[in-house]
Amino acid sequence: MANDNTKPACTRDELDQSRYLTRKILFKKQPVSAIIFAFDGDPYAYVNHCMHMNRPLDCEQDAIFDETGLYLRCSMHGFIFDPKTGECQSPVCFGQRLQSLRLKEIDGTLYFAEKHLTLID
Ligand code: FES
After folding, report:
1. Helix (H) or strand (E) holding 12
2. Tens digit of pLDDT for each residue in 43-94?
3. Cα 51 to averaged position of ligand 1 atoms, centre (Å)
4. First-residue to last-residue Cα distance in the chain
5. Which pTM was predicted?
């Protein structure tokens, strides 16, 4: 079994000092980006891919949260998502979820804990 410690996402300090971070990954053999952020003190990661029209959440502006800071927001058409579950709250895609990526924190570093994930550069 692959060792999760070989897939560092970022340090906890980097995350705490950023609104969000992105990482290029291969997930299930597809090159995609991951978004990583902290919400209510906990780290979360998702594949950066809005199911509405297949765009990254930050495709139109350098932000992944709405103005309230309570919801993830796709900058293409403004669909919003629960940051803890990735569930879309907007009518067209209501209930569909962003692909979550498990994280594991060890000694101040967050690692992707996904079997079918490989870091790109
Ligand atoms: S592509 Fe994300 S809301 Fe339309």
Report:
1. helix 12-16
2. 999 999 999 999 999 999 999 999 999 999 999 999 999 999 999 999 999 9
3. 7
4. 22
5. 0.94
Q: Is residue 19 part of a domain?
A: yes
**Which of 35, 50, 60 for mutating ligand 1's site (highest number of atoms within 8 Å of CB)?**
50
Note whether 105 and 87 are same-domain residues. Answer: no
For residue 15, give its domain range: 1-49+99-121
Find the 76 Cα to ligand 1 centroid distance in Å: 5
Among 47, 55, 64, 96, residue to substitute to test ligand 1 (most atoms within 8 Å of Cβ): 55
Whether residues 93 and 65 fall in one domain: yes
Indicate which residue's Cα is closest to atom 4 of ligand 1: 77
Dihedral angle at the C-alpha atoms of 30, 115, 72, 43, nearest 10 degrees? -140
Q: Which atom of ligand 1 is nearest to the CA of 93?
A: 3
Euclidean distance between CA atoms 39 and 72, whole angstroms? 10
CB 101 within 8 A of CB 45: yes
